[in-house]
Amino acid sequence: MAKDGSAYKRAPAGAAVLREEKTEAIREAVFEELAAVGFARMSIEGIARRAGVGKTAVYRRWRSKLHLVLDVVTALAAGSLPVPDTGSLRGDVRMLLEIGSRALRHPLATQIIPDLLAEAGRNPEMAEAVRSALHDSQEGVVAEMVGRAAARGEVPGDADARLALDLMVGPLYWRLVVARDRPSAAYLDALSRAVTTALGRT
Fold first, then answer.
1. Interatomic CA distance for residues 22 and 152, integer angstroms
2. What is the pLDDT of residues 123-181, one digit of tens each?
3. Residues in contact with 114: Cβ distance below 8 Å, sequence separation at least 6, in sequence order
4. Distance from first CA to last CA of the chain, Å, rounded?
């Protein structure tokens, strides 16, 4: 009881507190461990060692490595891409291609994404998390871009935003992750023209 007689709750201490800096260290360690050894060989022990924490700290937050990776991948969807607003569809597409190109050039992305896609083929939970993180959030961004373009009269009202996303992501993924070839500015310009042309009038 407080001095005035009112009740108060004692702040949790010790094992009851999940320190945010440890949680973030573990999440960062997951990306690094995935890039280093892949999902199949990844272990809670390896994650804890890389994060500089004990295994108990990991298990207090996630009950398995699958749930830990699912949480981290799902968090990517929550931090979805900003919606470009350059005033034209071609400008928006070009900016989104530049953002995507930079993201896919990151060493962690080139190692982690193919591994997660392979695991998604074997694990329905992983498949849903990957789809949400790598497709659904981006689809919402592109749908908003195409909707604004339709309102400006740049494309028909029934322009297919999913087609636009496929035309952007497919070539980028192939060029950067499969062929391991960095796209030039001229290539991104040509791809943005191709995407907007495929959607109709501009």
1. 48
2. 898 888 888 777 777 888 999 999 999 999 999 999 999 999 999 999 998 998 888 89
3. 177
4. 70
Q: What is this structure's pTM?
A: 0.73
- Delineate the domains of the chain, giving CATH numbers in brackets: 17-68 (1.10.10.60), 80-199 (1.10.357.10)
Letter string b/e over residues 131-157, b meaning 16 or more CB atoms within 10 A of that residue's CB = ebbbeebbbbbbbebbebbbeeebbee
Rg for the chain (alpha carbons), in Å? 22
**pLDDT tens string 2-56:** 455 544 444 444 444 668 889 999 999 998 998 899 998 999 999 999 999 999 9
Contact status, residue 162 vs residue 90, Cβ threshold 8 Å: no
Beta carbons within 8 Å of 87's beta carbon, 6+ residues apart: none
Structure-token pair, residue 21? 């800096």
**Residue at token pair 């999902």:** 39
